[in-house]
Amino acid sequence: MAKTTSFCKVILQLALFCGLLWLCNLWVNHAGWSIPGSVIGLGILVFLLATRVLPVRAVQAGSTWLLGELLLFFIPPVVSILKYQMLIREDGLMILASVVLGTMMVLTGTAWVVDRVFTLEQRLNERRLLESGGHV
């Protein structure tokens, strides 16, 4: 019974993710924006989680499953590499340099944001302790 409930949670959360993506794509197409609907949807999701309008447990099962199956999302790029071998031979080094540089930039940006959030949380916890009469 617990497995069925967990499976239903994952399916429901994935359906909600897909629904959010679909609505954001409609919105972007209607507005004529060049930014992808998935980016808008991710921004909305982050905003809802950050403001605690949407609790983490409401998306945890679906997001955990998606992260667990992440390898499946890399199959289409591998097929593309096999399909466009000539392009890879001609511009492979430039593509590789772009991928490596982009990855390094994303990792650096993520590390910086995590550090800032961690520092902010430490300060807030210290402030709460001082206000409650505790010691740091």
TrEMBL record:
Chain ranges passing through the membrane: 7-28, 34-54, 66-87, 93-114
Pfam families from the UniProt entry: LrgA
Organism superkingdom: Bacteria
Compartments it resides in: Cell membrane
Keywords: Cell membrane, Membrane, Transmembrane, Transmembrane helix
Protein's membrane topology: Multi-pass membrane protein
PANTHER family named in the record: HOLIN-LIKE PROTEIN CIDA, HOLIN-LIKE PROTEIN CIDA-RELATED
Name of the featured protein: LrgA
